[in-house]
Amino acid sequence: MTCVRLVRRWLAALLAFASLAGIAPVQAANNAPVILVHGFAGFGRSEMLGYKYWGGLTDLQAQLQSRYGDQMVRTAVVGPFSSNWDRAVELYYQIKGGCVDYGMLHANTHGHLRKPEDFWHNGRTCHPGLYPSWDASHPVHLITHSMGGQTARLLVQLLAANGAPSNPGLFAGSPSSAWVKSVTTISTPNDGTTLAYRVVDWVPVVQQLVTGVAGLTGGTAAQTVYDFKLDQWQIGPRKSSESFADYMNRVMAWPLWDSGIKDLSPYDLSPAGAMAENEWVKDHADVTYFSVSTDSSTRGWLTGWSYPNVDTNALLFLFVGPGWMGNFMPDARPFAPVDPASWWPNDGVVNTVSHKAPTWAMNAAGGIHARPVVIKDLSHGGTPQAGAWNWKGLMGGSDHFDIIGWTLFFDSVGWYKAHVDGLRGL
Description:
Shape: globular
Low-confidence stretches: 1-22
CATH class: Alpha Beta
CATH superfamily: Alpha/Beta hydrolase fold, catalytic domain
Number of helices: 13
Distance between the termini: 38 Å
């Protein structure tokens, strides 16, 4: 890490601490519950030997809950490698309560279980509900990271249309987009990530991420608790007699990893999958959207390619640079009609240009077009606008994991408290 970046981050942390210490939360216009939604390869609070997805060695949920005594803060846990549709449905039942039902038409179309509980009878996909009273009169704020942002946007759309047109009548009752007060997308591939095009074989990448995070916890792969949550594909949880290595090998031997099926995260994360979703996932006037960008790369003077900053997380370091995301050039696969160089800066997982808002869409015939979207720049302050994408700015020098607190050089607690203060004022 350069001395300049080190000093800058420490000053930012000190300023944030000074601004928050001893100061009560802002007077709340609303204290709707905050639900934290993880991204690709994410995990729950009881997994990874207690290492927190939200905060790492610092428990962001606990820190936020202690500050806001009149507001519930909870962490949702959805399929780390499932599609955005499946994750959105899981998120619904996590919040509202009940047994997961992916919808008959959706399940039949993609060839997986509709109601996993009817097959497994183990209660794993049935939930008491983080907030059973959830409805239009009792909305929630969704704070998301990475793929979690795509999942949350899709959930809002499913609520607004109750699953139509793909699966009408998906949820009981009469849900609406008003059930969600705000969606915050942090480092989200709103237009996809070219990393999904660079990865030829997802198996070693998944293994690297899972075992790499295990190393951060101080545990070994054999000791680490991690749940792939693929019950809908008839892949059962880790057995009591099964080592973690054997469990991972069983999951990784799953033939669908290389099947090209679209009802999985590798497709949804790609520019093609993201743009296809952007075609039917709309922005809703009663929801306030926020976005935050991150970048852990530096442009090369001679090549113009993007190279990883020296302090980029080791799990992501290679993905930043040339050969991966740092000099990606389009091929026959769908890609926005823009200068490819604009996509080279990245945070190790997602191209920075993709973070701001969902700006491109692709219709069923493969035609790519600009998506109608209102973007409001709040990087220097301002009042958020409902129905618009309120961009909170670029966190330069922050990689994909820094922003959720997996570093000592960013005051994640102060940043998230300040953001929740803003949400309370909506």
